[in-house]
């Protein structure tokens, strides 16, 4: 949870967020802050990030999932049923 906040200006209460949403949104979309952690009852409740940062997180997550799948499949690789790249290319020429 400590990774959520690098600086105090990245924290905002839910009440302050409601009152100054437009200004807080501008802070995130302009790049003044990378993200805002919104607190409710002194607990982190949500994180506001810009679209580019969100997309980068989604892309990285997708890459990590694909890598994990490849690692899992490598463990069950069978040389008897595996086709070489050259053989596969020859099939589709």
Structural features:
93 residues, alpha+beta, YefM-like fold, three-stranded mixed β-sheet, 4 helices, 17% strand, elongated
Task: Summarize the structure in short.
52% of the residues lie in helices and 17% in strands. The protein has 93 residues and is an alpha+beta fold. Strands 1-2-3 form a three-stranded mixed beta sheet.
- Number of individual domains: 1
How many E strands?
3
Helix fraction, binned, reads 40-55%
What would you report as the Rg, rounded to the nearest angstrom?
Answer: 23 Å
Tell me, what is the CATH class? Alpha Beta
Strand order of the largest sheet: 1-2-3
**What is the CA–CA distance across the termini?**
53 Å
According to CATH, the fold-level topology is YefM-like fold
According to CATH, the homologous superfamily is YefM-like domain
Structural commentary:
With 93 residues, this protein is an alpha+beta fold. The protein has one domain (2-77): YefM-like domain (YefM-like fold, 3-Layer(aba) Sandwich). Helices cover 52% and strands 17% of the residues. It contains four helices and three strands; from the N terminus they run βααββαα. Strands 1-2-3 form a three-stranded mixed sheet. The longest helix has 25 residues, at 51-75. It is elongated.
Secondary structure elements and their pairing?
Blueprint lengths: L10 E3 H6 L1 H10 L4 E6 L2 E7 L1 H25 L9 H7 L2
Parallel strand pairs: 1-2
Antiparallel strand pairs: 2-3
